[in-house]
Amino acid sequence: MRNQFFIANALKLDADPSTHPNISGPEISLWRGLDQEPLQAWRRGYPHGDVPVIVVIVREHGEDLFAHEESRLPVRESLARLTHRGADPPHPSQVLLADVRLSSHAGYTDSATRVSYNSAFTRMRKANYVPTGPTIIAQAPCRADLAGGTIDLWPLYLFHPGALTLNFAVNILTTCRVTPLKGTGIHLRSLDTKREEDFENFEQVHAGKKFRLPISARLLQFFAPKEGALIETDSESPAGAGISGSSALMIATTAALARFTNRHLTLEQMRVIAQNVEAQIIEVPTGCQDYYPALYGGVSAIRLDADGIHREAVPIMPEEIESRFVLAYTGLPRKSGINNWEVFTAHINGDKRVFRNFERIAGIARAMHQALVVGDWDGMARLMREEWKLRRSNAPGISTPLIDKLIGTAAKHGGQAAKVCGAGGGGCVIFQVEKGAASRVGTAIGDAGGRVLPLQAARDGLRMPPL
Fold first, then answer.
1. Regarding the domain with residue range 317-453, which homologous superfamily does it belong to in the CATH classification?
2. Are residues 27 and 4 in contact, defined by beta-carbon separation less than 8 angstroms?
3. Residue 46 pLDDT grade (very low, low, confident, very high; cuts 50, 70, 90)
4. Is the Cα torsion angle 182, 186, 191, 197 positive or negative in sign?
5. How confident is the model over 210-219, as a mean pLDDT?
């Protein structure tokens, strides 16, 4: 398929991109599909006009290719906030993101509606290693959960026939790169946490019990590579956000190491490995729902039955999700394993109140799924409010004073319902809002002390270049 070039932003916003001296050749002949509203907003946000050129490469029909980075610019967050949040863009020094995926309402049309902008790869530390082959790259998105969380812990869902969870993937990405190296050394690097760990050989990894980078190390123990490697990971998710950043990174790392060790796994096999190894890391049971958005993207209904777990894609346009939800980070890390474990043990120990609440949560998730399918947004909001009330009853520590404040603030500006993402106790809150109120709600949440994150539904799940 023929590649096409599109220019996402001009070097100087007060200059016509078609006449700028640094832009010429085939890029100019294919300059199209970008409306002027984002450019005007950028001019307001950057009065000096010092916005770098970004040339992205996309295939026809919207298939993704890696983009070329001219500079480190927070394009995805800025454009998302400008086009459907109404907030001022952050300064380029504030955010360094790994991906941009812009839908048509952000100014792109035709084959430019879906763009991958991978600056994370240029962020990976360069060291004096001797590669023996090409680097393997895998990316997986995080998620926002809408209903049915915690009940996805085995065997809780077996006690509630018809249980399901409902969530959607968000374009907040995790990345794993595996580079084969000369020698036997195993080198682990985490770009977002700035942690490192080195081993002389795999035997040292295999014998280890505690690790600075447990996701990479534990998965290495499972895959048992026979050669040296550099494993680099990165995550756009804030710390303790509750949007399954660790589970998404488990999927990305599982996929990259599977290819590195020539293991041909189905997506479901990857899910099982990632879930089981993550349970070994956190030392309590893990639910299954977080891995499916990372694998498939989109909006998912995950049915939890006696014969297994079945993922069903929910037929709804991503733009509809993006126009009706706001995602905010409270800045407080939560301990999902501990919160979930307390509820889990209460259920297993026969707490009748917790059991009844889970019965109602399972019923709410089923009803919310049906409401989402038919576009009953008022019904969705009512059900989300009801589920949040039940979750607070199950685990009072699920909320915090700041979360309560943000939910109350949102309700005064067009917010219809809200709930914490994940197990709560901090992290992120997902707000359902009136259509067209996202900008107003986001501004109010920011003023009240929350950090509004760019919410773009991830159209795809696990991403790897073809073999």
1. GHMP kinase, C-terminal domain (3.30.70.890)
2. no
3. very low
4. negative
5. 96
State the helix-helix crossing angle for 245-260 and 267-282, rounded to 10 degrees. 120
Terminal-to-terminal C-alpha distance of the chain = 17
CA distances in angstroms from 196 to 130, 186, 223, 372, 412, listed in the order given? 18, 11, 20, 43, 45
**Rounded CA gap, 308 and 74, in Å?**
41
Per residue in 403-442, pLDDT (tens digit) is: 999 999 999 999 999 999 977 778 999 999 999 899 999 9
Whether the Cβ atoms of residue 261 and residue 278 lie closer than 8 Å to each other: no
**Token pair in block for residue 252:** 């990305």
Per DSSP, 108 falls in state: -
Residues of the chain with CATH 3.30.70.890: 317-453
Q: What is the CA radius of gyration of the chain?
A: 22
Taking the C-alpha atoms of residue 443 and residue 112, their distance in angstroms, rounded to an integer, is 29
H-helix segments, 105-201: 120-123
d(CA 147, CA 301) in angstroms, rounded, equals 10
Both tokens of residue 338?
A: 């501990």
Q: Give the closest residue to 162 by CA, choosing from 302, 290, 314, 357.
A: 302
- Measured between alpha carbons, how far is 437 from 432 in angstroms, rounded to an integer? 10
Q: What was the pLDDT predicted at 149?
A: 85
Q: Mapping DSSP to helix (H, G, I), strand (E, B) and coil, where does residue 360 land?
A: helix
User: Do residues 5 and 26 lie in contact, with contact meaning Cβ atoms separated by under 8 Å?
Assistant: yes
Q: List the one residue out of 191, 230, 192, 267 whose CA is nearest residue 460.
A: 267
Alpha carbons 289 and 339: distance in angstroms, whole number: 16
pTM for the whole thing?
Answer: 0.74
Query: Which residues, 6 or more positions from 208, have their beta carbon under 8 angstroms from its beta carbon?
Result: 199, 217, 221
CATH (one of 3.30.470.10, 3.30.230.10, 1.20.1070.10, 3.30.390.50) for 124-312: 3.30.230.10
| Band (239; pLDDT cuts 50, 70, 90) | confident
CA 148, CA 126: separation in Å to the nearest integer? 43
> Which residue ranges does the chain devote to CATH 3.30.230.10?
124-312
**DSSP one-letter string for 228-248:** EEEEEEEE-SPTT-SS-HHHH
Q: Which amino acid, residue 364? A: I
